[in-house]
Amino acid sequence: DGGITQSPKYLFRKEGQNVTLSCEQNLNHDAMYWYRQDPGQGLRLIYYSQIVNDFQKGDIAEGYSVSREKKESFPLTVTSAQKNPTAFYLCASSQQGDRNSPLHFGNGTRLTVT
Amino acid sequence: GNSVTQMEGPVTLSEEAFLTINCTYTATGYPSLFWYVQYPGEGLQLLLKATKADDKGSNKGFEATYRKETTSFHLEKGSVQVSDSAVYFCALSDRDTGRRALTFGSGTRLQVQP
Fold first, then answer.
1. CA distance A20 to A9
2. What's the pLDDT tens digit per position in A68-97?
């Protein structure tokens, strides 16, 4: 079955360490997205990519970095510059070129930084 | 910019009660509108969508009508079940901008009691 795989489901890190969250999709979608979810704040867009080797900042990109070297993969690095990294991170993808195309989400990674 | 406002939760209902979750939006163009549902510990799943004014999206007994005159997209269900307990997100896709990512509301938690 096609879908989006995020790993790991839970991740724990010490403050000051960079950490990379994995996101892989086999839906053949061109566009991929990273959202952050905090209680009571809904989802906020971190980065998005509409095509391989290209990506744009979302609304809260500071302290994060991404790469898009392959169509299937869009890893997110949470750097030590991110002041409040503890959150639930969701990766999504969609069909490019169709503005009505819904997002398909992975099951998320819960990151805890202490 | 674009924004989505949802009623605050939690909404607590008894089984078979009628459900309404309010959603209003602000957008510069003519957006597509979506409702997503999130079950505990999971990512978001598309529940229904509407792409133009007066369209009605429906799925699994849930309905929502795109009301351009009131900029609203309220979610309704005639008879809720315990299995409908989840967090519901209203979202929009602005078709007139280059950014294809969705803008989400803050989510409304629904708790259905037997």
1. 13
2. 999 999 999 999 989 999 999 999 999 876
Q: Dump pLDDT digits (tens) for B38-82.
A: 998 888 999 999 999 999 999 999 999 999 999 999 999 999 999
pLDDT at B96 over 60: no
Shortest Cα distance from A28 to chain B (angstroms)? 17
Q: How many CB pairs under 8 A join A and B?
A: 60
| Residue A49 contacts residue A68 (beta carbons within 8 Å) | yes
Strand partners, B89: B36
Residue A103 and residue B35 in contact, taking contact as beta carbons nearer than 8 Å: no
Q: Which of B4, B101, B107 sits opposite A58 (nearest CB)?
A: B101
* Closest Cα in chain B to A108: B43
Which candidate from B42, B93, B105 shows the least CB-CB separation from A107?
B42
CB contact under 8 A, B100 and A31: yes
Q: Which of B82, B70, B61 is nearest to B33 (CA)?
A: B70
Shortest CA distance to B21 belongs to which of B82, B100, B87?
B87
